[in-house]
Amino acid sequence: NESQALIGDECGAIKSNLQLSVHTRRRGLDLLMASLTVSVHQSCSMSRRSAFTIESILGLDRPDPRTVLSAPHRPWTDVKPAGQSRGVVADSDVSVDEDSKSYSKSPADAYRRTLNWYIGRRPRTAFSSVQIKILESVFQLNSYPGIDIREELAKKLHLDEDRIQIWFQNRRAKLKRSHRESQFLMEKNVLSDLQSSREER
Amino acid sequence: NESQALIGDECGAIKSNLQLSVHTRRRGLDLLMASLTVSVHQSCSMSRRSAFTIESILGLDRPDPRTVLSAPHRPWTDVKPAGQSRGVVADSDVSVDEDSKSYSKSPADAYRRTLNWYIGRRPRTAFSSVQIKILESVFQLNSYPGIDIREELAKKLHLDEDRIQIWFQNRRAKLKRSHRESQFLMEKNVLSDLQSSREER
DNA sequence: TTGTAATTTAATAAC
DNA sequence: GTTATTAAATTACT
């Protein structure tokens, strides 16, 4: 039941992400993203005294590649014991705006989807090697098994027919993906071949 | 229109599955499916020397649940240096002990690159502190950035959009992990409190 | 050694 | 049905 599900482990994680209203979250994000570009006209000579203040982030326009790319992040080498990255709230500056209408997608959808990702999700099924082996064998012969075959497999493998169907869907997607990948590599090879043959001239 | 659709990217992938005629496919499938049941009368004492041979599949009658359900599938745990996962060739043993230890700088890189290519794993991306800082800021506002925001971030931070997405996935996993941990600690405290209060009586 | 980037895949939602 | 994306589990690198 529903209240049961809300008690779950991940409830806190959800709430911490949903404390701001969708409006506010989207608005704040817009502001942040915008701040990464709008300040092109600002002077770049502002003193950069304290790294990693809010200002240093929000004041950042198209970041200097040398700044962005340098100094790999090594948090565990820091002397700092203070782990501030924990159950973060970010509750401040909710007063940015009340009813901004500039967000593109439907925020309610995003909200509901976020919630649904956590609650009422089927636990991940772990297929055994034998099950996989048989499923793969069947897949090689027929990647679109009908309901009868799926039911048969389900009975044989002690799985729900639903799991079988999902497995075949994901398997087809995987095959398609790999095909796309190899085609991409082939095209890349063709390009490099073209280039090398041109260099030979 | 229809012929248009057939020209698409995935055409090859589909065709590779349709190389057998429908008759043949259905026939082979029938044989396979039947093989999962008909051999009830066969002796079960046949030597099961090599797991996952064709025989071990086809010889499987109503599979022993303990066999079918055990041993979760972990393909990448296998002998592994054989990088069969990617589109890579895995041409031969790289002979790890060739110059195994004490490669300090540039040979190490070459070796690692070879190995990476060989295993088919993307070289680990090292984010800069500034990149991390910005990613964290965005994460606090929205831990599920859509494609538009990811692309925007990618452009700003000079990263691939893919890296951004992976970063957010791992970041969410981290948050969840930390929540689980703290909840575990809380429960432990409750238990010890219970115990101490009982001892007081 | 730890933290985390990368990978794989079952589950889900949108279309 | 496909597609994109997620969580989960795990590997491997720094």
UniProtKB/TrEMBL annotation, chains A, B:
Residues 71-105 are annotated as: Disordered. GO terms for cellular component: nucleus. Residues 118-178 form the Homeobox domain. Residues 120-179 bind DNA. CDD domains: homeodomain. Its main location: nucleus. It comes from the Eukaryota. It is found in: Nucleus. GO terms for molecular function: DNA-binding transcription repressor activity, RNA polymerase II-specific; RNA polymerase II cis-regulatory region sequence-specific DNA binding. GO terms for biological process: pituitary gland development. Keywords: Developmental protein, DNA-binding, Homeobox, Nucleus. Pfam families: Homeodomain. InterPro entries: HD, Hesx1, Homeobox_CS, Homeodomain-like_sf. Coiled coil: none annotated. Belongs to the ANF homeobox family. This is Homeobox expressed in ES cells 1-like. The lineage of its organism: Eukaryota, Metazoa, Chordata, Craniata, Vertebrata. The gene is LOC113110545.
